[in-house]
Amino acid sequence: MTLFFSDPEFHTALAAELPGNSRRELPGIGWLSGHDLSQTPHLAFARQTLPQAIETQAASINAWADRLIDAVASILPDDQPWHLHFWPEYGEGRAGLHRCELIRTAMRERMKKRRRHLLRSLNEEEMPFTPTTSLVQCFLTSPEAGWLSVSIAPRPHELRAILSPFNRGFIPWAEDKAAPSRAFGKVIESEMRLGRQIAAGETVVDLGASPGSWSYVALQRGARVTAIDRSELREDLMRNPRLHFETADAFKYKPPQTVDWLICDVIAAPQRSIDLLLEWLRERRMRHFIVTIKFKGDDEYSLLSQLKQLAPPLCSDFRLTRLHANKNEVCAFGSSRAKA
Ligand SMILES: C[S@@+](CC[C@H](N)C(=O)[O-])C[C@H]1O[C@@H](n2cnc3c(N)ncnc32)[C@H](O)[C@@H]1O
Could you give the CA distance from residue 131 to residue 298 in angstroms, rounded to a whole number? Predict the structure, then answer.
């Protein structure tokens, strides 16, 4: 069974994305489904996915440590990196977190004695999956019960559209008080999930750019930015020699040549943002993209099915996710098939 996590307010939205009647609700957590993952490569409202979820019980900290070791020993490929995501889904406060920390420590201690090679290849950094990364996920629903999932390489990389490299699918809020607004967190989070940052010297078109947080990130990275909006950006950004501002309609703007990045956070009806992204992809106007699709209510989410169907063939990497930094919106991000 596959377990899909959802944020409570998007629980129903995720259910609507999971086809068929085979799903079972795990209250407060998400949905358990027997669905073939190759049929649902894009689930915008899944916070995290456990591809091989198995219900598990263990009576003590050491018993949990043994469960984890038994689950991976003789299964993980030798000398290839693996990640462990481990978190509590019960109670309030620190008790569950503390228990998870104790179990992790017990697991490491036991591995030191019996399975040193496993400990050597345990990678504690949260980073995008490569084709050689395996992933072990475990969460506790009480001190003695939980769910466990082991995904052997290259599965985590293959499932990267719905499998977050971050524990529980949460990315810590990016902090930068000098940015014009908190919206910059969406760019940072997309970059972290892609494992690719806007780079120095790259060209960026920022549609709906004002007051300028997304342009701010691109400028900080050393990129050259064309910012399109009806209102100007914050004054210091307008003075930046690498920023070119145009008062124009985001939906009419066309770059004179292929750019490295389209970043677009324009406030518009979702279908307009979807059409804009598809047009840019079809015309191969950008190599990489981050585009927000904003919703007014909760009755527009089904518009995403068109994007899920039409965008992936136009992309070498396509993600559609409600980021941690998103409110009632999702972000489409990835790389197009335009030449590098
Ligand atoms: C959410 S704000 C963008 C915030 C920006 N990403 C930031 O981080 O500062 C949306 C922007 O889209 C702009 N906008 C809306 N419709 C537009 C259009 N048709 N053409 C250009 N800009 C538009 C608005 O003026 C507004 O500044």
Answer: 36
